[in-house]
């Protein structure tokens, strides 16, 4: 399953974003942020405590089951009284949740998290970014490993000079995508694919912002 | 117009190139001093492009200065800071000013430099930039439009003979050749027996290889490179030799070693020449050349 991977903003930044807003309603989510321990029940409670100590009045909190779901409209409605008494909603979900909630209320929303990437769980508590939804998929020529995402520079013609013992020049904890691709293609006896020159990428596969309309794409 | 660097590569003589680094700021005095010192001694001078992702005076401006002072610039271009439009525009400008050598690089990551929050571009990468140069020489830009007034470049790239794993690096090397590279400057090599093996492979391709020589300045510096610089491997005996130098004469030892290596590369005709990277000590390049007996 893919997950939205988040990181809590430093409390100083949250403080700044809440400057002058005394009454705070906090919203967490029961899905991805619960899994990553960034916006589940314990984190929402800890945030309530932190902000109370800093002089905020916490008007209430709720953990929405799936904040990015359309059902969020009804859930937000249910807490309307308390939300009405609040100056601001502090949202401890990913940015999909923040924006879904923002559409349901006339209150100011403030994210308490930064959304890092859409990740795949690759081990217990480990998540990797493996697709950036570029709109021009080349997985068929790279043994099913995406260099656009997994290579720090998004290189499509092989490794850069910074690759070192199979690791990336920016972080020895990150694998060099092109070492992985090389190993995979070698195993498949398809190194001919790696030797094929890739033209400059089309960065406008779906010009940003992406939009899809089923009626126009039956 | 055929550049004098290209003529040197094709002449069969032992080619020597070196580097000059543009300043952080507009004070070009030191760079001009290095150009003056080297312009009649080397066959080409690389002008580095925000080396190590540190923002500086542009390589294009530095190459222009080399040209104005009567030297032979090799314009380094990375794909880190410019998209394909800006890269092509700078190639047009270079060609219009008689800068006819270009070294096509992907470029270090932004996060290694001094503007850590900047956007890394990488719209193209090294082999695609080489292809772009060749396409522009045929009168077309990457958008498919005709160019009014042509370009002509001696285009090269880099290769890391000590890369680990090596084969992906060699596949990339061959792609760069396919995309139009005429010459290669290598990452620093220290183990010349290893380098000879690399050349047995690389020698089958119609390209000129210049072996990268980085001046060792101390034993700790050599250890630092082994630990931190991708694809650099200083053998233990060279580190021991550096460490054995009497106090205060490590640099002289480094010059001796660099000279000795260049001499051997030349005598054994391992490759077309050398690319000397003195990294901040460009003043010493003439001494290294003298120690090697290439002047």
**Overall 3D form of chain B:** globular
| Secondary-structure content class of chain B | alpha/beta
Quaternary:
heterodimer
Q: Which strand-content bin applies to the residues of chain A?
A: 15-25%
CATH topology of chain B: TIM Barrel
Major interchain interface with per-chain residue totals? A-B, 30 and 35 residues
CATH architecture of chain B: Alpha-Beta Barrel
Concise structural overview:
By secondary structure, chain A is of the alpha/beta class.
Describe this protein with a few key phrases:
heterodimer, A: 218 residues, alpha/beta, Rossmann fold, 2 domains, four-stranded parallel β-sheet, three-stranded antiparallel β-sheet, 9 helices, 9 strands, elongated, B: 295 residues, TIM Barrel, eight-stranded parallel barrel, 11 helices, 15% strand
Structural summary, described in words:
The complex is a heterodimer of chains A (218) and B (295). By secondary structure, chain A is α/β, with parallel strands linked by helices. Chain A folds into 2 domains: 2-116, Rossmann fold (3-Layer(aba) Sandwich), CATH 3.40.50.2300; 130-195, no CATH class. Helix content of chain A is 29%, strand content 24%. Chain A has helices spanning 11-17, 32-35, 41-53, 72-78, 80-84, 95-102, 147-150, 177-187, 191-195; strands at 2-8, 23-29, 57-64, 88-91, 108-111, 113-123, 126-129, 167-168, 171-175. Chain A has a 4-stranded parallel sheet with strand order 3-2-4-5, with helices on both faces. In chain A, strands 1-6-7 form a 3-stranded antiparallel sheet, with no helix packed on it. Chain A has a two-stranded antiparallel ribbon with strand order 8-9. Chain A is elongated and about 65 Å long. Chain B is α/β, with parallel strands linked by helices and 295 residues long. Chain B has a single domain, classed as Alpha-Beta Barrel (TIM Barrel). Chain B is 42% helix and 15% strand. Chain B contains 11 helices and 8 strands. Chain B has helices at residues 4-11, 29-38, 59-68, 84-96, 126-137, 166-179, 192-202, 219-228, 236-244, 250-267, 285-292; strands spanning 15-20, 44-47, 73-78, 101-105, 154-159, 183-188, 208-214, 273-277. In chain B, strands 1-2-3-4-5-6-7-8 form an 8-stranded parallel β-barrel, surrounded by 6 helices. In chain B, helix 3 links the parallel strand 2 and strand 3. In chain B, helix 4 packs across helix 5, helix 5 (126-137) runs parallel beside helix 6 (166-179) and helix 10 (250-267) crosses helix 11 (285-292). The longest helix of chain B is centred in the last third of the chain and has 18 residues, at 250-267. Chain B is globular, with a radius of gyration of 18 Å. Classes of the chains: A alpha/beta (218), B alpha/beta (295). The A-B interface holds A 152-166, 169-170, 178-179, 182, 186, 191, 194-195, 197-201, 203 and B 84, 105-106, 108-109, 111-112, 120, 122-128, 131-132, 142, 158, 160, 163-165, 167-169, 171-172, 174-175, 178-179, 187, 230-231.
């Amino acid at each position: 399953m893919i997950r939205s991977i988040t990181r809590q903003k430093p409390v100083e930044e949250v403080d700044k974003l809440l400057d002058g807003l005394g009454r705070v309603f906090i919203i967490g989510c029961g899905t991805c942020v619960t899994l990553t321990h960034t916006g589940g029940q314990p984190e929402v409670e800890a945030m309530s405590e932190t902000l109370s100590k800093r002089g905020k009045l916490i008007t209430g909190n709720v953990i929405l089951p799936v904040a990015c779901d359309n059902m969020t409209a009804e859930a937000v409605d249910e807490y309307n009284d308390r939300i009405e008494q609040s100056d601001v909603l502090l949202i401890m979900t990913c940015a999909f949740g923040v924006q879904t909630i923002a559409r349901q209320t006339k209150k100011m929303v403030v994210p308490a998290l930064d959304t890092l990437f859409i990740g795949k769980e690759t081990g217990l508590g480990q998540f990797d970014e493996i697709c950036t939804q570029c709109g021009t998929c080349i997985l068929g020529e790279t043994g099913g490993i995406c260099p656009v995402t997994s290579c720090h520079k998004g290189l499509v013609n092989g490794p850069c000079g910074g690759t070192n013992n199979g690791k990336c020049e920016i972080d020895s904890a990150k694998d060099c995508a092109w070492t992985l691709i090389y190993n995979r293609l070698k195993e498949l006896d398809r190194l001919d694919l790696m030797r094929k020159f890739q033209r400059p990428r089309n960065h406008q596969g779906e010009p940003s912002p992406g939009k899809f309309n089923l009626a126009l794409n039956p | 117009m055929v550049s004098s660097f290209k003529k040197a590569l094709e002449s069969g003589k032992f080619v020597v190139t070196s580097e000059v680094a543009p300043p952080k700021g507009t004070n070009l005095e030191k760079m001009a001093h290095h150009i003056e010192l080297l312009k009649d001694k080397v066959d080409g001078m690389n002008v580095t492009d925000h080396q190590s992702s540190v923002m500086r005076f542009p390589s294009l401006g530095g190459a222009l200065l080399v040209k104005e002072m009567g030297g032979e610039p090799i314009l380094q271009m990375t794909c880190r800071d410019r998209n394909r439009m800006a890269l092509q525009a700078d190639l047009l400008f270079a060609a219009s000013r008689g800068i006819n050598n270009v070294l096509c690089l992907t470029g270090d990551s932004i996060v290694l430099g001094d503007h850590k929050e900047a956007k890394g571009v990488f719209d193209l990468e090294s082999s695609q930039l080489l292809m772009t140069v060749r396409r522009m020489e045929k009168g077309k830009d990457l958008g498919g439009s005709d160019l009014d007034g042509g370009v002509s470049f001696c285009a090269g790239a880099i290769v890391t003979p000590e890369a680990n794993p090596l084969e992906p690096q060699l596949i990339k090397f061959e792609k760069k050749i396919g995309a139009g590279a005429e010459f290669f400057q290598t990452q620093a090599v220290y183990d010349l027996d290893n380098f000879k093996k690399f050349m047995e492979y690389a020698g089958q391709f119609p390209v000129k290889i210049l072996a990268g020589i980085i001046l060792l300045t101390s034993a700790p510096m050599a250890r630092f490179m082994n630990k931190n610089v991708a694809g650099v491997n200083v053998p233990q005996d060279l580190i021991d030799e550096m460490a054995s130098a009497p106090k205060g004469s490590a640099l002289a030892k480094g010059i001796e070693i660099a000279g000795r290596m260049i001499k051997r590369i030349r005598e054994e005709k391992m490759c077309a020449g050398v690319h000397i990277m003195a990294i901040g000590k460009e003043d010493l390049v003439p001494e290294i050349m003298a120690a090697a007996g290439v002047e």
